[in-house]
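Now for my pick.
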Amino acid sequence: MARPKYRVLVVDDEANQRNALASMVEGWGYESATASDGGEALEKLKDFDACAIVTDLMMPGIDGSELLRRLREQGSAPPAIVLTAFGNMETAIALVHDLGAFWFLEKPLQAGALRLLLERAVAQRQLSDYNEALERRLSEQGVLGELVGGSAPMQEIFSLIRQVAPTSATVLITGESGTGKELAARAIHELSPRRAGAFVAINCAALPETLIESELFGHEKGAFTGALDRRRGCFELAHGGTLLLDEIGDMPLTTQAKLLRVIEERRVRRLGSPKEVEVDVRVLAATNRKLKEEAQQGKFREDLFFRLNVFQIPLPPLRQRLSDLPLLSKAMINDMNRRHQCNVDGLSDEAMALLAAHPWPGNVRELRNVLERAVILAGNGQIMPGHLSGLTAGGGVQHGSSTPQNPGELLIPVGTRIDEAERALIEVTLKHTGNNRTRAAAILGISQKTLFNKLREYGSQENAE
């Protein structure tokens, strides 16, 4: 029998049915409350923390469908079991698919089926509460999704993400290139009621103006030259989930006007189609530009800026949270060890000092690139200063010297032919890796096939074989 602390809200416009359901639920050990329609249910839920809802579908005023829609928009929907007559079966199935209803039951009800579904619904709510508490504890330790950081600026970002994720609000994520804007967007999606839906990201700066509308809205066969098949756009692909418009500041003004209409009306028309398609998509946008200033200068639509800037999350640059370097480095090195089959156990004190002295104009993305190369170079043990290519204690760029400073360095005199320098670099890299061609190719940034061809070209048959 369920323990009394689990609460169930019963919603039905018929008093006899409502009271009978409440009595049945209480008989199974739950605490119950009742509401005569969706409006009263919304009010009751402000003070009644329900683990599950049992609601009729067809009711005057706010019916079961509208109740679930509003709860989803608020980001506070407990699992709901929808009661439906046979003629409303199609609507009930749509509620399960589109609004996340837990399940539906036909009338007249079978008590055993309702009891079983209630037990499962409550178990789902318990799991959801546990996951939320786990995410909160992890964020306090400096981890939220794929975002890492225990500094005060990042803890503030984690707090903002936790606040906005359960809602349906549009979010504008700002920050310099490489600060992790897409990771923040993914964290919002994973902590939202839409987590089971798709997360679709499109880089508005990477597409030519002639293709961006097709990518966003889709197209019909023959809509333009090269449109050989019908294609769904990002809005349709993200239906029921989240769409990230990355680098939104680079979107053409003409496309911005069409985007604004789709966001407001939740309907999209494929290129070349006379029909519109309804879409249920949460929109997140990211940019490294100052959109407010650009809107004032006419470089970005002001109405679109206001529509996107409902809730802003400004990610700090890495130079403003250098205390996160040890935590970030540890997480990245662990990930790279798995991907590159290495066994690096961290950075030496001298290497960490180099990281702390660097200005990091490329932010977290630059740090990842530096550490990835260092992990491959080191292979095992600790990362030493010599593994951190391009970094110096003064935070500048390391230039060539007259003599090698480490066994793994290579001195190439002025006047050396390119093919000779390339051959020497390949040979010293192979020596460094113990003739491991896989690691050598990764360090050199070339494929194993290219490395093999180079060795054969230079006549190093003993290494190529």
